[in-house]
Amino acid sequence: MLARLTAYPPEQAAITRSLHDGEALRIGRGPDNGLCLPHPSVSRSHAVLEAGEGTWRLRDLDSKNGSFVDGRRIEHGDALAGGCWLRFGEVYCEFTPLSADEQARGDDAWRRRRASAAAQTARIDGMQRLEEVLDGSLRGVVELAQCDRGFVLVEGAGGLAVRASLALEPSQLSAREFSGSIGAVQRVLERGRSVVANDIGNEPWLAGRASVIAAGLSTLVCLPLLDAGRAFGAIYADRTRPGPPVTTLDLELLEAFAEHAALWIAARRARAQLARATAEASWSAIVQAHEGAPA
After folding, report:
1. Which residues fall within 8 angstroms of residue 83, CB to CB, at 6 or more apart?
2. Which terminus has fewer CB within 10 Å in the chain: N or C?
3. pLDDT tens string for the chain (295 positions)?
4. Contact assessment for residue 3 and residue 56, using Cβ atoms and an 8 Å cutoff
5. 12 and 196 in contact (C-beta within 8 Å)?
6. Using CA atoms, how far apart are residues 284 and 193, in angstroms rounded to an integer?
7. What is the reported pTM?
8. Could you give the 3-state DSSP secondary structure of residue 18?
């Protein structure tokens, strides 16, 4: 008897846990829980999900804000008849029973994603031009996050500028429909930490924005490009179609890839700046000009 629990903490990547027959998953805010949900609405020891009598049962542990199954508050060991939505305080979780084949397919898909991350990393290692590294980094993040479009923002002589984009025209980034996503990028630049929104309708800082509603976004991820701990840019990706959530495991792959990409972008950017400076004020050109000038 297998199942998967996917938690959607606000402003964080989704957290997934595989559930196996005979196991019990303790859920709460405390770090000693099998599923830690660090949200103030969740009690330290909130609930327990356990297998019994051929089904999974959810039991509340006298939590302050309650445990819910499909919107109904439970108190004792209520059976979960099939796929359903659970809520602990204000944190929503999706419960999905799985067959052995479904579990195996999920494990295989994760192995392929790890292999894809390794391939994307190796690909940018061989790129020499800054534009190639920027485009390769963007395409890697869009693919790994299972998104459809995105852009790379990098600091330059004139300030931050969009240096690469995918399925997004520069004019779209200035449109009102994109202003909610710009807010996500600003958070990343200010904090130097990734931002993930899987359930945008339940993100208070995004859901109320008419621009986000107009754009119809379902998922977004934004990763900082860091140099000595300072964000000199960001890689943004999103999608409007339904799709799998960006999980904590996905975010680990994405952040490792973005960290590697940032090293190459910073190196290629420095080389390009040096080349421009050389072209603008080449000492050898200056000497040659003086040598050729009349005395």
Report:
1. 94, 95, 96, 97
2. C
3. 789 999 998 778 999 999 988 889 999 999 999 999 999 999 999 999 998 777 899 999 999 999 999 889 987 778 888 889 999 999 999 999 998 899 899 889 999 999 999 999 999 988 888 999 999 999 999 999 999 999 999 988 778 888 999 988 767 777 665 655 778 888 899 999 999 988 655 554 444 444 444 456 778 899 999 998 899 999 999 988 888 889 999 999 999 999 999 999 988 877 666 555 444 445 565 566 556 555 5
4. yes
5. yes
6. 44
7. 0.80
8. strand
Contact 53/80 with Cβ under 8 angstroms?
A: no
Q: Token match 């391939």: residue?
A: 119
Residues 6+ apart with CB under 8 A from 20: 1, 2, 51
